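Hi V.,

Quick status before I head out on leave. The structure for the redesign project is tokenized and pasted below; the design run finished overnight.
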């Protein structure tokens, strides 16, 4: 609903505006939908469909594996890992329910294996050494 600051409210005497302003988030969402609905050239659609099918075959999976293990694939993966896009994806995952559950399982596993106590002990030892020095 309107908060009284839209163009319509400035000219409306009764202040009974029911104009819904389009926010930047709404515009981005609509642009994404529009992009998905754009008509694709039928010949290009066939190419996309064939590429998708090839990726699911054994030969396609093998080609993808070879690329990932090549220097070019490793370099590409390294660039992505250092990008802001990757960091943002990791942050989103950490905030999600699935990410929180994973972190909880990792913590429980560390505590159950005794690693947590070991890490704490080493940390206290380093603190003592730093205080003495």
């Amino acid at each position: 609903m309107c908060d009284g600051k839209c163009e319509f409210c400035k000219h409306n005497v009764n202040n009974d505006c029911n104009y819904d302003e389009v926010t930047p988030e709404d515009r981005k969402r609509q642009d994404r939908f529009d992009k998905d609905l754009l008509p694709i050239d039928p010949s290009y659609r066939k190419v996309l469909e064939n590429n998708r099918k090839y990726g699911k075959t054994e030969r396609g999976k093998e080609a993808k594996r070879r690329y990932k293990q090549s220097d070019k694939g490793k370099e590409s993966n390294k660039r992505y890992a250092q990008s802001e896009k990757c960091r943002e994806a990791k942050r989103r995952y950490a905030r999600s329910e699935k990410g929180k559950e994973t972190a909880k399982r990792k913590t429980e596993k560390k505590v159950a294996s005794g690693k947590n106590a070991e890490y704490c002990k080493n940390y206290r030892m380093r603190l003592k050494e730093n205080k003495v020095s």
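Above is the designed sequence. The chain has two domains: 1-38, 41-132.

G. will cover questions while I'm gone.

Best,
W.
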